[in-house]
Amino acid sequence: MLNRSFSKRSLAGFVFERLDENGNPTKERFEGWQWESPNVAYLPRHFCVNINIYGDQDPQYLPVSPDCLNGLMSTIQPRFDRPGDLIFWSPDYGYKNSTQFRVLWVGEEIARCEISAGVCELYIP
């Protein structure tokens, strides 16, 4: 996730949820507070946070964006063979008809994103 705004944003305000074929949330969910640490609670302008599936894949499942000008603030690395419920953006993981995920900001849905697009741009109110 890259912050292109002029404001820093609370990481805890974000939630990402996979949607099933009927548009309902599934158990695959990532809450932004998981990116937080004692030194990181907000995402400044032009900084990034990411989720990178750890494994031996080449190329990586989800590489860092070249638009991430100032670097990564935090990375979550689930293992590809033990991902838990963190993988909300892959098209084939458990829900064969899953084509979207949604983004919540402070409990309110602000975007639905097509998994196949590979990018999800949204506006935070």
Structure overview:
Helices cover 0% and strands 31% of the residues. It has one domain. Strand 7 and strand 8 form a beta hairpin. The chain contains no helices and eight strands. By secondary structure, it is an all-beta fold.
Using DSSP, what is the number of strands? 8
Span between termini = 16 Å
- Largest sheet properties: 4 strands, antiparallel
Rg on CA atoms, Å: 14 Å
Number of domains: 1
Q: What order do the helices and strands follow?
A: EEEEEEEE
Q: If strands are numbered along the chain, what order do they take across the biggest sheet? A: 3-2-7-8
Briefly note the structural class of the backbone. mainly beta
Strand content: 25-35%
Overall form? globular
Briefly characterize the structure:
By secondary structure, the protein is mainly β.
How are the SSEs ordered, and which strands pair?
Blueprint: E1 9-10, E2 14-19, E3 25-31, E4 42-43, E5 48-51, E6 72-76, E7 100-105, E8 108-114
Parallel strand pairs: 5-6
Antiparallel strand pairs: 1-4, 2-3, 2-7, 7-8
Supply database-style keywords.
125 residues; mainly beta; 4-stranded antiparallel β-sheet; two-stranded antiparallel ribbon; 8 strands; 0% helix; globular
